[in-house]
Structure formats: structure tokens, C-alpha cells
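Allow me, if you will, to draw on your knowledge of protein folds for a short while. I have a record of one protein: its chain in single-letter code and its fold written as C-alpha cells. Could you please explain, in whatever detail you think fit, how the C-alpha cells follow from the sequence? The record follows directly beneath this note:
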Amino acid sequence: MKYSVLLGFAVAALPISSAAQDCRWSGGSYRGQEMSFEVRIDVNADCTEMTMTSSGNDGVQPTDAAQTFPLSDGKHGWVADVNGVNATLAKDDDFVTFFGEGIDVRVEMHPLE
């Protein structure tokens, strides 16, 4: 009984560590700009949350106010609900897409050194 419970915990943890290993954004800091919208994101090592600062946009977040949002593994990348706006960190390229009421923009992100 004791071993089956431990095995259950080990099996349950596998998808989480696998998702973090596949996250190209994990542990990084990035900056991007599309027209007048500027954004910086910092992603934690296990790709479960990001901290975002932006130039502000109605419906996204106040100007220069760093906020932290949970990330989850989605179909097209890692997804966060940024104050009602869907932010997707792409799985296969360097873009973050912001989509919601009042915004539909795709921003190319560059690593900060």
C-alpha cells in the first residue's frame, strides 16, 4: 500500500516536469515591441508563472506595473490570463500573442542578457 501511494505521486508529477522541460521560455527574460506597445516578461524556471511589465494598454494592464500571472501548457504554447486578455507564449517561435477585448497583437520577443 505504501509503495503504491508513492508510485502514484511519482506518476502524477511526470506531466509537470515534462511540460517544464519542453518550455522554451523557462527561466528567461524577454523584451518586445509592436508599434507603441512594449512588453517585458520574466518566466520562472518551471514555466508555471510569468511576471509582465508593459507600456500599458486599455484592457491589458497599467503602464509599468509589474504583475505576475500563472502559466499553463496549452495547444499553441504557454497561456496566461492577463487581466482578461489571453497571452500565449508560442511553443515554436519567439512570439507572444495578446488577444482579448481591445487588443489583438503578436509581439516578437528578444532575450535580455
Summary: The chain has a mean pLDDT of 83. The beta strands are 29-34, 37-43, 49-54, 67-70, 72-73, 77-82, 85-90, 95-100, 103-111. Helices lie at 2-22. DSSP finds one helix and nine strands in the chain.
